[in-house]
Amino acid sequence: MAVGKNRKLYYIDHCLTPHESIPDGAILCEKERIIALGGASAFMKEPGLEIYDMTDCFAMPGLIDCHVHGAGGFDSANAWKSSRDDLNKMSINLARHGVTTFFPTLVSDEKQQMIRNVAALAKLIEESYEGAVPAGINLEGPFINPEKAGSQNKDFIYEIDLEFAKELIEAGNGRIKLMTFAPELENAEKLIELMLENGVIPSMGHSMADGEATLRAIEAGARRCTHLFNGMPLLQQRRNDLPLIALTDDQVSVELIVDGGHLHPKMVDLASRVKPRDMIIGVSNAIQSSDIDVEESNGIVRRDGLIAGSTTTLEKGWAHLTNYANLPETLAAACFTSNPARDLGLITRGELKPGKKADITFFDCQTNTVRMTVVQGKIVYHSEEF
């Protein structure tokens, strides 16, 4: 057997690990793992080695989108009547945009319908896919504050019901990884305890929580905030509440929707200056909707005048973050790769490092567009130019 069998070597202009930038780099993969990376001159050609000359591109870990409702024709809200082929379209579509891992996200719904959708998604996630890998389920509700429902249907927003929460968790069969809740609701601490016992990350959001309720939730174990500044009170100089505490408490990681519409660039800059750099998580909040009542403009989707989501893809979000916050490309890249991986416990993803999964996105050095996406060592997308 040839020494290089099942090995791929990628030559690149530079590599963002993302914690450092390696110029004139190369990445060596064997099957689904990275086995070495560094300067290109350190690698020798060997029999059977597949070599890819990507020297007009740079590489970074595959993007992780942990808050995405739909793409490619698939809508998580319709999981109950969807097949593996339907979710596969979302998987392939996201891979075209450099995403290698994603979390299908559900909003609040009628109780039995929500349970049915969670169960359907949990089953679908067990299948194999041709693009990005669905790694878990994100529930954006239903125990949120109707005053900050946004575009969610207020008829399907509930006071905290621990029995209903248990039913959702049971339907998820261990696949629910995130749940957004409002800390001010009665029994919030009990809900946090239930989530943590079942491996679900409590995320504060769609809330009017004051400082006291927010701190109680943090003390109980909530360490994450859903799309900071959106779905919560306005940041105000004489008021201590959820956005101020989430912004200034170093225990709390925060999602940012960096699509140019959900947040003013200066608010993105503010968060990037204040938060520890490893506590910022870029998300797309992308939706796939056939709803005739929604309007889309410049990547922002609105329903009845309210922002309902985004059509801006994640690779554009990381480019925006670099521009809005004047972050070095290494730190901006971390917000979409190693930061969500750390927050979600994805210990084999989010970094280009020996032993990690070979989840790699290659960007054109001139245009910053995705040229190729590798998921677990397999090339799942490449541009026509490649």
Question: What does it look like?
Answer:
The strands form 4 sheets. Strands 6, 9, 10, 11, 12, 13, 14, 15 and 16 form a 9-stranded parallel sheet that branches. Strands 1, 2, 3, 4, 5, 20, 21 and 22 form an 8-stranded mixed sheet that branches. A 3-stranded antiparallel sheet has the order 17-18-19, with no helix packed on it. It has helices at residues 84-96, 111-125, 162-172, 188-197, 211-220, 242-248, 265-274, 314-325, 329-334, 338-344, and strands at 7-16, 21-23, 25-30, 33-39, 50-61, 63-68, 70-71, 74-75, 99-107, 133-134, 137-140, 176-181, 201-204, 224-225, 253-257, 280-283, 294-297, 300-303, 306-310, 360-364, 370-375, 378-382. Helix 2 runs parallel beside helix 3, helix 3 (162-172) packs parallel to helix 4 (188-197) and helix 7 (265-274) packs across helix 8. The chain is built from 10 helices and 22 strands. It is an alpha/beta fold and 386 residues long. It has 2 domains: 7-61 and 351-382, Urease, subunit C, domain 1; 63-344, TIM Barrel (Alpha-Beta Barrel), CATH 3.20.20.140. The protein is globular and about 65 Å long.
